[in-house]
Amino acid sequence: MEHQHYSHRTGWLRAAVLGANDGIVSTAALIVGVVGAGTGPREILLAGVAGLVAGAMSMAAGEYVSVSSQSDTEAADLAKEREWLEAHPEYELDELTRIYVERGVTPDLAREVARQMMEKDALAAHARDEIGITEVGSVSPIRAAFASALSFLAGGFIPLLAVIFVLGATRGTMITVVTVASLLSLTLLGVLSARAGGAPVLRAVLRVTFWGALAMAITALVGNVVGTTV
C-alpha cells in the first residue's frame, strides 16, 4: 500500500507561504497603522501601494541574496571535497565507511557500500552523506527572487484591495474591513499550506492567524498613539 511523503515540497512551500504571509501581514499592518493615525484616503492608498511594492522588492532581494549565499557555500564545500577525493581517496573511503557504520550498517557491509557508492559517483556520495547536500544549485537565485516577490504581491494585494473598496469610510470601518479580509486570507493560506505539506490544518491556521492578528493589533495601537500625539 503506497503512502505519500511531503518533504520534497518544503523548498517551494516555505518560500510561497513566507512570501504570501509576509505580504498579507505587513501590508495589512501598515494600512491599519496609517488608518489608525488618522491620515486621509490619499495618504492611506499611497502608503499601501508603497508598502506593497517595497515589500515585494525587499523579499526578492532577500531571497536572491539568501539563495546565492547558500549556493556559494555549497560550491565551496564541493570544491574542497573534490580536492580531497583526488588527493586522499582511501581516507575518503574510510570516512564514508565510518558514516555508514554510525548509521547502523555492519563494518564489512558499510565498506562495500561505500566502495560501490564511490565507484558510481564519489562526489555525490560524499556531498549527500558527509556534507548533507542533496541537490546542488537546484534553485536559481533569480527564480527564487521572482517567486518570493510574486507571492508577496499576491498576499499584499488582498488588504490593499479591501481598503480601496471602503476608502473614505470611517476609520473603524476601514480597520475592520482590512483586518477581517486579512485574517480570512491568512486562514485560507494556513489551510492551503497545511494540505500541501500534509500537516494538521488547525495548527497551521491558528499559527498564521494569531501572529497576523497580533501584528495588526500592535501596529493599529502605534498608529492611534502617534495620531493622537501628533
Structural notes for this entry:
The protein is mostly helical and about 230 residues long. It has 2 domains: about 10-70 and about 140-230, no CATH class; about 75-130, no CATH class. About 85% of the residues lie in helices and about 0% in strands. It has helices at about 10-35, 40-85, 90-100, 105-130, 140-165, 170-195, 200-230. Helix 1 runs parallel beside helix 7 (about 200-230), helix 3 (about 90-100) crosses helix 4 (about 105-130) and helix 5 (about 140-165) packs antiparallel against helix 6. The protein is elongated, with a radius of gyration of 25 Å. The N and C termini lie far apart (about 65 Å). The relative contact order is 0.19. Residues about 1-10 have low confidence and may be disordered.
Report the sheet-strand fraction: under 5%
Q: Shape from CA axes? A: elongated
How would you classify the helix and strand content by structural class?
mainly alpha
Structural domain count: 2
What is the CA–CA distance across the termini?
67 Å
Unreliable segments of 5+ consecutive residues: 1-12
The sequence of SSEs as H and E is: HHHHHHH
Please state the average pLDDT score: 81
Largest sheet data:
none
Percent range for helical residues?
Answer: over 70%
Total number of strands? 0
Please count the helical segments.
7
Computed CA radius of gyration, to the nearest angstrom: 25 Å
Can you lay out the helices and strands and say which pair or pack?
Layout: H1 10-36, H2 41-87, H3 89-102, H4 107-131, H5 141-165, H6 171-197, H7 201-229
Helix pairs in contact: 1-2, 1-5, 1-6, 1-7, 2-3, 2-4, 2-5, 3-4, 5-6, 6-7
